[in-house]
Amino acid sequence: MISSIDPVTGETIATYEEMPLSEVAQAVEAADRAHQSWSRLEFAARALPMKRAAALLEERKDALALLMAREMGKPLAQGISEAEKCAWVCRHYAEHAHSFLVPEPIATDAAKSYVTFQPLGVVLGVMPWNFPFWQVFRFAAPALMAGNACLLKHASNVSGCALAIGDIARDAGFPEGLFGVLLIRAEAVTRVLEMPLVRAAALTGSSVAGRSIASQAGRMLKKCVLELGGSDPYVVLEDAELGPTVETCVASRLINGGQSCIAAKRFIVVRSLEHAFTERMVDAMRERTQGNPTEPGIDIGPLARRDLRDQVHAQVTESVRRGAVRALGGMVPPGAGAFYPPTVLTGVRPGMPAYDEETFGPVAAVIVAEDEADAIRIANDSPFGLGAAVFTRDRARGERIAAEEIQAGSCFVNAYVRSDPRLPFGGIKESGYGRELSHFGIREFVNIKTVYIA
Questions:
Q1: What is the rounded average pLDDT of the residues 315-333?
Q2: Which of 99, 188, 284, 327 could form a disulfide with 184 if both were Cys (CB 3.0 to 4.6 A apart)?
Q3: Where does 101-195 have alpha helices with state H?
Q4: How many independent structural domains does the chain possess?
Q5: What is the mean pLDDT of the chain?
Q6: Which one, of 182, 164, 368, lies nearest residue 273 by Cα?
Q7: pTM of the predicted model as reported, rounded to 2 decimal places
Q8: Range(s) of the domain holding residue 408
Q9: Residue 184 domain-assigned?
Q10: 71-114 pLDDT, tens per residue?
Protein backbone atom coordinates (compact mmCIF):
# COMPACT_ATOMS: atom_id res chain seq x y z
CA MET A 1 0.00 0.00 0.00
CA ILE A 2 1.05 3.58 -0.70
CA SER A 3 0.07 6.12 1.96
CA SER A 4 -0.43 9.88 2.14
CA ILE A 5 0.28 11.25 5.61
CA ASP A 6 -0.79 14.65 6.92
CA PRO A 7 2.46 16.40 7.95
CA VAL A 8 0.54 18.52 10.46
CA THR A 9 -0.84 15.63 12.49
CA GLY A 10 1.14 12.60 11.32
CA GLU A 11 -2.14 10.81 10.56
CA THR A 12 -2.71 8.74 7.42
CA ILE A 13 -5.23 10.54 5.21
CA ALA A 14 -5.39 8.09 2.28
CA THR A 15 -4.00 4.78 1.07
CA TYR A 16 -3.61 3.51 -2.47
CA GLU A 17 -3.04 0.13 -4.02
CA GLU A 18 0.30 -0.15 -5.78
CA MET A 19 -0.10 -0.93 -9.48
CA PRO A 20 1.11 -4.40 -10.49
CA LEU A 21 3.71 -4.53 -13.23
CA SER A 22 1.21 -6.00 -15.69
CA GLU A 23 -1.02 -2.94 -15.27
CA VAL A 24 1.99 -0.65 -15.71
CA ALA A 25 2.82 -2.42 -18.98
CA GLN A 26 -0.74 -1.85 -20.17
CA ALA A 27 -0.43 1.85 -19.36
CA VAL A 28 2.79 2.04 -21.38
CA GLU A 29 1.14 0.34 -24.35
CA ALA A 30 -1.89 2.64 -24.10
CA ALA A 31 0.40 5.69 -24.00
CA ASP A 32 2.23 4.53 -27.11
CA ARG A 33 -1.05 3.96 -28.99
CA ALA A 34 -2.27 7.41 -28.01
CA HIS A 35 1.03 8.95 -29.08
CA GLN A 36 0.78 7.43 -32.56
CA SER A 37 -2.36 9.41 -33.36
CA TRP A 38 -1.63 12.44 -31.16
CA SER A 39 1.71 13.09 -32.87
CA ARG A 40 -0.05 13.37 -36.26
CA LEU A 41 -2.36 16.16 -35.11
CA GLU A 42 -1.70 19.77 -36.02
CA PHE A 43 -0.40 21.96 -33.20
CA ALA A 44 -3.70 23.83 -33.10
CA ALA A 45 -5.52 20.57 -32.35
CA ARG A 46 -3.08 19.64 -29.60
CA ALA A 47 -3.48 23.11 -28.11
CA LEU A 48 -7.23 22.70 -27.49
CA PRO A 49 -7.02 20.25 -24.56
CA MET A 50 -3.93 22.02 -23.27
CA LYS A 51 -5.89 25.29 -23.02
CA ARG A 52 -8.77 23.43 -21.36
CA ALA A 53 -6.31 22.01 -18.83
CA ALA A 54 -5.21 25.56 -18.03
CA ALA A 55 -8.82 26.59 -17.45
CA LEU A 56 -9.45 23.58 -15.21
CA LEU A 57 -6.38 24.34 -13.13
CA GLU A 58 -7.72 27.82 -12.48
CA GLU A 59 -11.24 26.59 -11.78
CA ARG A 60 -10.01 23.97 -9.29
CA LYS A 61 -7.16 25.94 -7.72
CA ASP A 62 -8.75 26.19 -4.28
CA ALA A 63 -9.35 22.45 -4.07
CA LEU A 64 -5.90 21.70 -5.46
CA ALA A 65 -4.29 24.03 -2.91
CA LEU A 66 -6.12 22.27 -0.09
CA LEU A 67 -4.92 18.92 -1.41
CA MET A 68 -1.31 20.17 -1.47
CA ALA A 69 -1.67 21.51 2.07
CA ARG A 70 -2.96 18.20 3.36
CA GLU A 71 -0.48 15.97 1.56
CA MET A 72 2.77 17.96 1.85
CA GLY A 73 2.15 21.02 4.00
CA LYS A 74 2.11 23.89 1.50
CA PRO A 75 0.27 27.01 2.74
CA LEU A 76 -2.96 27.62 0.83
CA ALA A 77 -1.91 30.89 -0.79
CA GLN A 78 1.23 29.26 -2.16
CA GLY A 79 -0.78 26.29 -3.44
CA ILE A 80 -3.18 28.60 -5.28
CA SER A 81 -0.22 30.39 -6.87
CA GLU A 82 1.23 27.05 -7.91
CA ALA A 83 -1.98 26.01 -9.68
CA GLU A 84 -2.11 29.38 -11.45
CA LYS A 85 1.49 29.00 -12.59
CA CYS A 86 0.64 25.56 -14.02
CA ALA A 87 -2.13 27.18 -16.04
CA TRP A 88 0.42 29.70 -17.32
CA VAL A 89 2.82 27.03 -18.57
CA CYS A 90 -0.02 25.15 -20.28
CA ARG A 91 -1.13 28.28 -22.14
CA HIS A 92 2.45 29.23 -22.96
CA TYR A 93 3.13 25.98 -24.80
CA ALA A 94 -0.33 25.85 -26.34
CA GLU A 95 0.41 29.24 -27.91
CA HIS A 96 4.10 28.86 -28.77
CA ALA A 97 4.86 25.18 -29.41
CA HIS A 98 4.39 25.56 -33.15
CA SER A 99 6.91 28.40 -33.44
CA PHE A 100 9.37 26.54 -31.19
CA LEU A 101 9.27 23.46 -33.42
CA VAL A 102 8.79 24.93 -36.90
CA PRO A 103 11.24 23.28 -39.37
CA GLU A 104 14.43 25.28 -39.82
CA PRO A 105 15.84 25.64 -43.36
CA ILE A 106 19.62 25.28 -43.68
CA ALA A 107 21.49 26.38 -46.80
CA THR A 108 23.73 23.56 -48.08
CA ASP A 109 24.74 22.01 -51.41
CA ALA A 110 21.34 20.29 -51.53
CA ALA A 111 18.38 21.49 -53.51
CA LYS A 112 16.65 21.63 -50.15
CA SER A 113 17.82 20.86 -46.63
CA TYR A 114 16.29 21.58 -43.28
CA VAL A 115 15.95 20.42 -39.69
CA THR A 116 12.67 19.08 -38.40
CA PHE A 117 11.59 18.16 -34.87
CA GLN A 118 9.67 14.94 -34.28
CA PRO A 119 8.44 13.52 -30.96
CA LEU A 120 10.23 10.58 -29.38
CA GLY A 121 7.19 8.72 -28.04
CA VAL A 122 6.46 7.78 -24.43
CA VAL A 123 8.34 9.89 -21.85
CA LEU A 124 8.45 8.85 -18.19
CA GLY A 125 8.36 11.66 -15.65
CA VAL A 126 9.65 10.90 -12.15
CA MET A 127 8.55 13.85 -10.06
CA PRO A 128 9.00 15.06 -6.45
CA TRP A 129 6.57 16.13 -3.77
CA ASN A 130 7.70 19.72 -3.09
CA PHE A 131 5.84 21.36 -5.99
CA PRO A 132 3.48 18.48 -6.76
CA PHE A 133 1.64 20.21 -9.61
CA TRP A 134 4.21 22.63 -11.05
CA GLN A 135 6.98 20.06 -11.44
CA VAL A 136 4.62 17.82 -13.40
CA PHE A 137 3.19 20.46 -15.74
CA ARG A 138 6.65 21.96 -16.25
CA PHE A 139 7.69 18.63 -17.74
CA ALA A 140 4.41 17.49 -19.29
CA ALA A 141 3.13 20.62 -21.07
CA PRO A 142 6.08 20.91 -23.50
CA ALA A 143 6.43 17.15 -23.90
CA LEU A 144 2.77 16.74 -24.82
CA MET A 145 2.70 19.74 -27.13
CA ALA A 146 5.73 18.29 -28.93
CA GLY A 147 3.63 15.20 -29.70
CA ASN A 148 4.86 12.83 -26.99
CA ALA A 149 2.87 10.81 -24.49
CA CYS A 150 3.65 11.16 -20.77
CA LEU A 151 3.61 8.74 -17.86
CA LEU A 152 3.86 10.15 -14.34
CA LYS A 153 5.56 8.36 -11.45
CA HIS A 154 4.97 10.84 -8.64
CA ALA A 155 6.37 10.85 -5.12
CA SER A 156 4.38 8.38 -3.04
CA ASN A 157 3.34 10.92 -0.39
CA VAL A 158 1.48 13.04 -2.98
CA SER A 159 -0.44 10.30 -4.76
CA GLY A 160 -3.63 12.29 -4.35
CA CYS A 161 -2.07 15.16 -6.29
CA ALA A 162 -0.94 12.72 -8.98
CA LEU A 163 -4.46 11.40 -9.43
CA ALA A 164 -5.87 14.94 -9.49
CA ILE A 165 -3.52 15.74 -12.38
CA GLY A 166 -4.75 12.62 -14.14
CA ASP A 167 -8.31 13.85 -13.66
CA ILE A 168 -7.42 17.20 -15.21
CA ALA A 169 -5.86 15.50 -18.24
CA ARG A 170 -8.97 13.36 -18.71
CA ASP A 171 -11.45 16.19 -18.20
CA ALA A 172 -9.47 18.47 -20.52
CA GLY A 173 -10.01 16.01 -23.35
CA PHE A 174 -6.54 14.57 -23.92
CA PRO A 175 -6.78 11.19 -25.69
CA GLU A 176 -7.20 8.20 -23.43
CA GLY A 177 -3.85 6.89 -22.30
CA LEU A 178 -1.83 9.87 -23.51
CA PHE A 179 -1.16 11.00 -19.93
CA GLY A 180 -1.00 8.13 -17.45
CA VAL A 181 -0.44 8.02 -13.70
CA LEU A 182 1.62 5.12 -12.35
CA LEU A 183 1.09 4.44 -8.65
CA ILE A 184 4.36 2.60 -8.10
CA ARG A 185 7.28 2.84 -5.72
CA ALA A 186 10.72 4.10 -6.66
CA GLU A 187 12.05 0.56 -6.86
CA ALA A 188 9.78 -0.14 -9.84
CA VAL A 189 11.09 2.73 -11.98
CA THR A 190 13.88 0.59 -13.43
CA ARG A 191 11.36 -1.92 -14.72
CA VAL A 192 9.43 0.87 -16.44
CA LEU A 193 12.56 2.31 -18.03
CA GLU A 194 13.42 -1.15 -19.36
CA MET A 195 10.18 -1.31 -21.35
CA PRO A 196 11.08 -0.71 -25.02
CA LEU A 197 8.15 1.63 -25.65
CA VAL A 198 9.43 4.09 -23.02
CA ARG A 199 11.79 6.28 -25.02
CA ALA A 200 13.04 8.85 -22.49
CA ALA A 201 12.78 10.07 -18.91
CA ALA A 202 12.65 13.33 -16.97
CA LEU A 203 13.51 13.43 -13.29
CA THR A 204 13.26 16.22 -10.75
CA GLY A 205 14.75 15.14 -7.45
CA SER A 206 17.91 14.63 -5.45
CA SER A 207 21.38 14.09 -6.85
CA VAL A 208 21.23 10.52 -5.54
CA ALA A 209 18.04 9.86 -7.50
CA GLY A 210 19.56 11.58 -10.54
CA ARG A 211 22.58 9.30 -10.54
CA SER A 212 20.29 6.29 -10.33
CA ILE A 213 18.04 7.37 -13.21
CA ALA A 214 21.01 8.47 -15.33
CA SER A 215 22.78 5.16 -14.90
CA GLN A 216 19.64 3.17 -15.68
CA ALA A 217 18.79 5.28 -18.73
CA GLY A 218 22.39 5.14 -19.87
CA ARG A 219 22.46 1.37 -19.82
CA MET A 220 19.45 1.39 -22.13
CA LEU A 221 20.67 4.34 -24.24
CA LYS A 222 17.62 6.43 -23.43
CA LYS A 223 17.60 10.20 -23.20
CA CYS A 224 17.01 11.76 -19.81
CA VAL A 225 16.76 15.29 -18.42
CA LEU A 226 17.73 15.77 -14.78
CA GLU A 227 16.79 18.72 -12.55
CA LEU A 228 18.45 17.92 -9.25
CA GLY A 229 19.37 19.51 -5.95
CA GLY A 230 20.85 22.90 -5.30
CA SER A 231 22.60 24.91 -2.63
CA ASP A 232 21.98 28.29 -4.17
CA PRO A 233 24.37 31.08 -3.14
CA TYR A 234 23.08 34.62 -2.71
CA VAL A 235 26.00 37.04 -2.87
CA VAL A 236 25.44 40.28 -0.94
CA LEU A 237 28.02 42.92 -1.84
CA GLU A 238 28.96 46.00 0.18
CA ASP A 239 26.82 48.35 -1.93
CA ALA A 240 23.64 46.27 -1.73
CA GLU A 241 20.46 48.06 -0.64
CA LEU A 242 20.11 46.21 2.63
CA GLY A 243 16.37 46.39 3.36
CA PRO A 244 15.05 45.05 0.02
CA THR A 245 17.95 42.59 -0.16
CA VAL A 246 17.10 40.99 3.18
CA GLU A 247 13.41 40.79 2.33
CA THR A 248 14.22 39.10 -0.99
CA CYS A 249 16.64 36.69 0.65
CA VAL A 250 14.16 35.71 3.37
CA ALA A 251 11.34 35.25 0.85
CA SER A 252 13.51 32.94 -1.23
CA ARG A 253 14.72 30.95 1.77
CA LEU A 254 11.26 30.37 3.24
CA ILE A 255 9.07 29.78 0.18
CA ASN A 256 7.50 26.32 0.45
CA GLY A 257 9.04 26.01 3.90
CA GLY A 258 12.50 26.11 2.34
CA GLN A 259 11.76 22.95 0.40
CA SER A 260 12.80 24.15 -3.02
CA CYS A 261 15.81 23.24 -5.14
CA ILE A 262 16.20 26.90 -6.13
CA ALA A 263 15.60 28.38 -2.69
CA ALA A 264 18.39 30.58 -1.38
CA LYS A 265 20.46 28.49 1.00
CA ARG A 266 23.92 30.06 1.38
CA PHE A 267 24.01 33.80 2.08
CA ILE A 268 27.49 35.03 1.26
CA VAL A 269 27.85 38.48 2.79
CA VAL A 270 30.89 40.77 2.63
CA ARG A 271 32.34 41.39 6.06
CA SER A 272 31.29 45.06 6.26
CA LEU A 273 27.60 44.02 6.11
CA GLU A 274 27.83 40.86 8.21
CA HIS A 275 26.23 42.12 11.43
CA ALA A 276 23.63 44.42 9.88
CA PHE A 277 22.54 41.75 7.39
CA THR A 278 22.36 39.01 10.02
CA GLU A 279 20.35 41.13 12.47
CA ARG A 280 17.82 42.08 9.81
CA MET A 281 17.56 38.51 8.56
CA VAL A 282 16.93 37.16 12.05
CA ASP A 283 14.24 39.78 12.65
CA ALA A 284 12.55 39.07 9.29
CA MET A 285 12.67 35.29 9.73
CA ARG A 286 11.27 35.60 13.26
CA GLU A 287 8.28 37.58 11.99
CA ARG A 288 7.09 34.84 9.65
CA THR A 289 4.04 32.92 10.87
CA GLN A 290 4.28 29.12 11.07
CA GLY A 291 1.31 26.84 11.55
CA ASN A 292 -1.38 24.68 9.97
CA PRO A 293 -1.13 25.35 6.21
CA THR A 294 -4.90 25.10 5.76
CA GLU A 295 -5.41 28.19 7.93
CA PRO A 296 -5.30 31.73 6.47
CA GLY A 297 -2.30 33.96 7.01
CA ILE A 298 0.24 31.17 7.40
CA ASP A 299 3.66 31.81 5.84
CA ILE A 300 5.27 28.47 6.68
CA GLY A 301 3.70 25.07 7.12
CA PRO A 302 5.37 21.89 8.32
CA LEU A 303 7.98 20.10 6.30
CA ALA A 304 6.52 17.38 4.10
CA ARG A 305 7.49 14.43 6.32
CA ARG A 306 8.94 13.87 9.78
CA ASP A 307 11.94 12.00 8.41
CA LEU A 308 12.76 14.99 6.22
CA ARG A 309 12.42 17.30 9.23
CA ASP A 310 14.74 15.07 11.22
CA GLN A 311 17.28 15.11 8.40
CA VAL A 312 17.32 18.92 8.34
CA HIS A 313 17.69 19.04 12.11
CA ALA A 314 20.60 16.60 11.95
CA GLN A 315 22.34 18.92 9.46
CA VAL A 316 21.79 21.89 11.77
CA THR A 317 22.97 19.98 14.84
CA GLU A 318 26.12 18.75 13.13
CA SER A 319 26.89 22.22 11.79
CA VAL A 320 26.59 23.63 15.33
CA ARG A 321 28.78 20.85 16.67
CA ARG A 322 31.44 21.92 14.18
CA GLY A 323 31.29 25.55 15.21
CA ALA A 324 28.26 27.24 13.63
CA VAL A 325 26.12 29.45 15.88
CA ARG A 326 22.33 29.33 16.15
CA ALA A 327 21.27 32.94 15.72
CA LEU A 328 17.61 31.85 15.44
CA GLY A 329 15.69 28.59 15.71
CA GLY A 330 17.44 25.30 15.17
CA MET A 331 15.41 23.28 17.68
CA VAL A 332 12.66 20.73 17.04
CA PRO A 333 9.38 22.05 18.46
CA PRO A 334 7.24 19.83 20.68
CA GLY A 335 4.06 18.22 19.43
CA ALA A 336 2.90 16.22 16.48
CA GLY A 337 3.74 16.93 12.89
CA ALA A 338 6.86 17.75 10.94
CA PHE A 339 7.32 21.40 11.92
CA TYR A 340 10.75 23.04 11.96
CA PRO A 341 11.25 26.71 12.82
CA PRO A 342 12.91 29.33 10.62
CA THR A 343 16.59 29.00 11.48
CA VAL A 344 19.63 31.22 10.94
CA LEU A 345 23.16 29.84 11.36
CA THR A 346 26.18 32.13 11.48
CA GLY A 347 29.87 31.30 11.41
CA VAL A 348 29.24 28.71 8.70
CA ARG A 349 32.42 27.33 7.15
CA PRO A 350 33.56 24.48 4.89
CA GLY A 351 33.21 21.07 6.50
CA MET A 352 29.78 21.85 7.94
CA PRO A 353 26.60 20.37 6.41
CA ALA A 354 25.13 23.89 6.18
CA TYR A 355 28.03 24.83 3.88
CA ASP A 356 28.63 21.61 1.96
CA GLU A 357 25.15 20.08 1.58
CA GLU A 358 21.69 21.03 0.41
CA THR A 359 19.51 21.93 3.40
CA PHE A 360 15.93 21.25 2.36
CA GLY A 361 14.12 23.29 4.94
CA PRO A 362 13.90 26.80 6.44
CA VAL A 363 17.60 27.04 7.36
CA ALA A 364 19.71 30.04 6.31
CA ALA A 365 23.49 29.72 6.39
CA VAL A 366 25.33 33.07 6.67
CA ILE A 367 28.88 32.91 5.30
CA VAL A 368 31.26 35.86 5.50
CA ALA A 369 33.42 36.88 2.52
CA GLU A 370 36.28 39.36 2.53
CA ASP A 371 35.43 41.01 -0.78
CA GLU A 372 33.81 40.43 -4.19
CA ALA A 373 36.44 37.97 -5.38
CA ASP A 374 36.17 35.95 -2.17
CA ALA A 375 32.37 35.94 -2.38
CA ILE A 376 32.48 34.59 -5.93
CA ARG A 377 34.97 31.92 -4.86
CA ILE A 378 32.70 30.81 -2.01
CA ALA A 379 29.63 30.84 -4.26
CA ASN A 380 31.34 28.48 -6.69
CA ASP A 381 32.78 26.30 -3.91
CA SER A 382 29.92 23.82 -4.16
CA PRO A 383 29.15 20.58 -5.99
CA PHE A 384 25.85 22.16 -7.02
CA GLY A 385 25.09 24.67 -9.77
CA LEU A 386 21.36 25.28 -10.07
CA GLY A 387 20.59 28.91 -9.22
CA ALA A 388 22.30 31.95 -7.71
CA ALA A 389 21.72 35.63 -7.07
CA VAL A 390 23.82 38.77 -6.68
CA PHE A 391 22.82 41.92 -4.80
CA THR A 392 24.42 45.26 -5.60
CA ARG A 393 23.33 48.80 -6.47
CA ASP A 394 25.67 48.66 -9.47
CA ARG A 395 23.60 46.76 -12.04
CA ALA A 396 26.48 46.51 -14.50
CA ARG A 397 28.63 44.96 -11.79
CA GLY A 398 25.87 42.53 -10.89
CA GLU A 399 25.32 41.60 -14.52
CA ARG A 400 29.02 40.90 -15.04
CA ILE A 401 29.17 38.63 -12.00
CA ALA A 402 25.92 36.87 -12.93
CA ALA A 403 26.83 36.33 -16.57
CA GLU A 404 30.53 35.59 -16.30
CA GLU A 405 31.53 34.56 -12.78
CA ILE A 406 28.87 32.47 -11.04
CA GLN A 407 28.66 28.77 -11.94
CA ALA A 408 24.93 28.06 -12.19
CA GLY A 409 22.14 27.39 -14.66
CA SER A 410 20.38 30.63 -13.62
CA CYS A 411 21.75 33.75 -11.95
CA PHE A 412 19.54 36.68 -10.98
CA VAL A 413 20.55 40.21 -10.01
CA ASN A 414 18.66 41.92 -7.15
CA ALA A 415 15.88 39.31 -7.34
CA TYR A 416 15.30 35.79 -6.11
CA VAL A 417 15.64 32.85 -8.47
CA ARG A 418 12.43 31.48 -9.95
CA SER A 419 11.35 29.44 -12.94
CA ASP A 420 9.49 31.06 -15.82
CA PRO A 421 8.01 29.32 -18.89
CA ARG A 422 9.75 31.88 -21.12
CA LEU A 423 13.24 31.10 -19.79
CA PRO A 424 15.28 27.88 -19.81
CA PHE A 425 15.60 26.17 -16.45
CA GLY A 426 18.15 23.64 -15.23
CA GLY A 427 21.56 23.24 -13.66
CA ILE A 428 25.16 22.17 -14.03
CA LYS A 429 27.50 20.00 -11.96
CA GLU A 430 25.52 17.87 -9.48
CA SER A 431 22.39 19.92 -10.13
CA GLY A 432 21.80 17.93 -13.31
CA TYR A 433 21.76 18.44 -17.05
CA GLY A 434 19.35 19.29 -19.81
CA ARG A 435 16.87 22.14 -19.74
CA GLU A 436 13.18 22.56 -19.09
CA LEU A 437 10.92 25.42 -20.20
CA SER A 438 11.31 27.93 -23.07
CA HIS A 439 12.08 26.64 -26.56
CA PHE A 440 15.09 24.78 -25.16
CA GLY A 441 12.84 22.63 -22.96
CA ILE A 442 10.42 21.53 -25.67
CA ARG A 443 13.35 20.41 -27.83
CA GLU A 444 14.73 18.02 -25.21
CA PHE A 445 12.29 15.22 -26.09
CA VAL A 446 12.25 15.43 -29.86
CA ASN A 447 14.30 13.88 -32.63
CA ILE A 448 16.25 16.77 -34.18
CA LYS A 449 16.23 15.35 -37.68
CA THR A 450 18.17 16.49 -40.76
CA VAL A 451 16.29 16.26 -44.06
CA TYR A 452 18.42 16.55 -47.24
CA ILE A 453 16.98 16.55 -50.77
CA ALA A 454 19.54 16.39 -53.60
A1: 98
A2: 188
A3: 134-145, 159-172, 189-193
A4: 2
A5: 98
A6: 368
A7: 0.97
A8: 232-413
A9: yes
A10: 999 999 999 999 999 999 999 999 999 999 999 999 999 999 99
